[in-house]
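Regression test case RT-17, inverse folding.

Input:
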C-alpha cells in the first residue's frame, strides 16, 4: 500500500518544522497536497512558513508553538493527536550537544533525551491506534547514523538516536501487513543554504562542503522512501560511511576516532 492520499480532515504532522529538514518536509508534504500541523518552539518562523505554504499550495496549515521536551506540553499535544485523523507523522525535532558529558548542563542533557527519544515514543504511540484502525498511515522518524556507534563527546545525542533507530526498525516489523508504513531517516550533516564564512559554525568549518546534503533533496528522498515502506533511508556520503563503520567496525577502533572529531565540535 502507499501512503494516505490528502483528505480534508486528515493532517500530516511535522515536528521541528521551523528550519532544516523539518521545514523541507513540511514544504514537500504541502506540495503533495497534504494539510499540516507544524510544530516547533520558534513561533515567528512557524507562522511565516505556514503563510507561505497556505499561499503557494492551498493547504490548511495549523501551527503549534511548543517545546516537546516539556512533558506537560507534550502530553497535551499527544492527547490532541490521538483524537484526530493523523495521516503522516514526521518525528523530526531534535537537539545535540558536544563535549564530555560530565561538563555539560545536566538539565539540557535531560531535555535532549526528552526531545530526541521520549517525545518520539510518545507521539508515535498517540497516532498509532488511529492509523492501525484506518489501515493506513506513515511514520517517518529522523534518527541518525550517529545512533549506530559509540561517540565520545556526543554521548547523549548518540544514545538517543540509538533508541529511535532501533525503535523505528522494530516498529516497522511489528506493523507488517497493517497498512502503516514506518521509515527511519538517518542523515548526515544537512544544509538549507551555504553559510557566509563570517557566520559559519564550527561544524560548517570542520565538515567539507561535499559531505553536506541538501534539505530539500533529503525531504523528497525520505517521503518517497516512506511511501515505499523502506526500512531506512541514508542520504549523503558521511552518513553512509558512519552507518557502515558503526555496523562493521569494532567500537574499540571507531569510537576513539569519531570521538576525537566530536571533541573539536565541543570546542
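Golden output:
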Amino acid at each position: 500500500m502507499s501512503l494516505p492520499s490528502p483528505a480534508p480532515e486528515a493532517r500530516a504532522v511535522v515536528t521541528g518544522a521551523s528550519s532544516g529538514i523539518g521545514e523541507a518536509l513540511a514544504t514537500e508534504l504541502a506540495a503533495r497536497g497534504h494539510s499540516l500541523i507544524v510544530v516547533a518552539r520558534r513561533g515567528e518562523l512557524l507562522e511565516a512558513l505556514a503563510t507561505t505554504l497556505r499561499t503557494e499550495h492551498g493547504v490548511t496549515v495549523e501551527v503549534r508553538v511548543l517545546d516537546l521536551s516539556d512533558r506537560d506540553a507534550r502530553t497535551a499535544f499527544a492527547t490532541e493527536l490521538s483524537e484526530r485523523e493523523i495521516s503522516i507523522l514526521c518525528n523530526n525535532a531534535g537537539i545535540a550537544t558536544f563535549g564530555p558529558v560530565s561538563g555539560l548542563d545536566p538539565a539540557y542533557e535531560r531535555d535532549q533525551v526528552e526531545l530526541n527519544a521520549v517525545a518520539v515514543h510518545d507521539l508515535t504511540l498517540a497516532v498509532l491506534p488511529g492509523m492501525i484502525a484506518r489501515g493506513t498511515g506513515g511514520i517517518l522518524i529522523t534518527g541518525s547514523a550517529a545512533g549506530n556507534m559509540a561517540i565520545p563527546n556526543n554521548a547523549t545525542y548518540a544514545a538517543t538516536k540509538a533508541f529511535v533507530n532501533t525503535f523505528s526498525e522494530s516498529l516497522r516489523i511489528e506493523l507488517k501487513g497493517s497498512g502503516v508504513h514506518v521509515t527511519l531517516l538517518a542523515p548526515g550533516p544537512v544544509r538549507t543554504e551555504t553559510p557566509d564564512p563570517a557566520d559559519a559554525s564550527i561544524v560548517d568549518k570542520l565538515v567539507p562542503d561535499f559531505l553536506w546534503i541538501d534539505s530539500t533533496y533529503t525531504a523528497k528522498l525520505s517521503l518517497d522512501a516512506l511511501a515505499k515502506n523502506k526500512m531506512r533511508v541514508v542520504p549523503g556520503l558521511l552518513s553512509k560511511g558512519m552507518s557502515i563503520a558503526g555496523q562493521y567496525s569494532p567500537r574499540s577502533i571507531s569510537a576513539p576516532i569519531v570521538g576525537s572529531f566530536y571533541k573539536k565540535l565541543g570546542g
